[in-house]
Write a structure and sequence with these properties.
It is a single chain. The chain contains eleven helices and no strands. It is mainly alpha-helical. The longest helix is centred in the first third of the chain and has 28 residues.
Length: 220
């Protein structure tokens, strides 16, 4: 009995190659947009970095705008979830988890020069294109909801002060963190981010109940 409808080995290989080409385009586009902004991004530079043809680009994406949307929907969403959302899910101690994330911010010269890719794209395109505004807003919401959710869970378990508003605190923390990223990018001095890491860590530690802060101070 023959296997009806089962994809041939050749078709499976073609599909894998197509997926790989699309992934290469997306990653190359992300790097180009991160370095030059969306409007300054050069399609020829993206093609060269991905090692594919212009035909391959337009097979997967209708135009530059569609490529930019896909970078947000796929690459930047994945990166944000890996850095912020996933570590906060089921964290034993949300404050410790947040401190680790903040302290993991890269101080490499190239990363300091380029800043935060989400913030960069939001600032550049939100006032110009509704599709970009909606997508960057969704990513900021995912980020905010992850922090607020972790703080609420910490409150339930007695790890976070119960007199704070988790949503407002999450907004403040993200705004403060991103503010230091902007100042670091402008100054091109990683010491600015190091100062920010210390300040944000101090703010996070202040969210612990008094008894937890006393224990932490005793250990110190």
């Amino acid at each position: 009995m023959s296997a009806v409808g089962k994809p041939s080995r050749g078709r499976r290989a073609t599909a894998r190659n197509s997926e790989r080409t699309r992934a290469l385009l997306l990653r190359a586009a992300f790097e180009e947009i991160y370095g030059s902004g969306f409007r300054g991004a050069d399609l020829d530079a993206i093609l060269a970095a991905a090692g594919v043809t212009k035909g391959a680009l337009y097979y997967h994406f209708d135009d530059k705008e569609a490529l930019g949307y896909a970078v947000l929907d796929e690459v930047m969403t994945s990166d944000l979830h890996k850095k912020w959302v996933q570590p906060l899910q089921n964290a034993k101690d949300p404050i410790n988890a947040l401190v680790r994330i903040v302290q993991s911010e890269s101080l490499k010269r190239e990363d300091v020069r380029r800043g935060c890719p989400l913030l960069n794209l939001s600032q550049e395109m939100s006032g110009l294109d509704e599709g970009f505004r909606r997508r960057t807003a969704k990513l900021f919401k995912d980020w905010h909801d992850a922090v607020a959710g972790a703080l609420r869970e910490g409150q339930k378990r007695g790890l976070v002060r119960d007199d704070i508003d988790a949503k407002e605190t999450a907004t403040f923390l993200i705004a403060t963190y991103e503010g230091y990223v902007v100042l670091t990018k402008n100054s091109q001095d990683p010491r600015m981010m190091q100062s920010g890491q210390r300040r944000v860590k101090g703010q996070l530690e202040s969210l612990r109940p008094a008894r937890s802060r006393a224990r932490a101070a005793g250990r110190g």
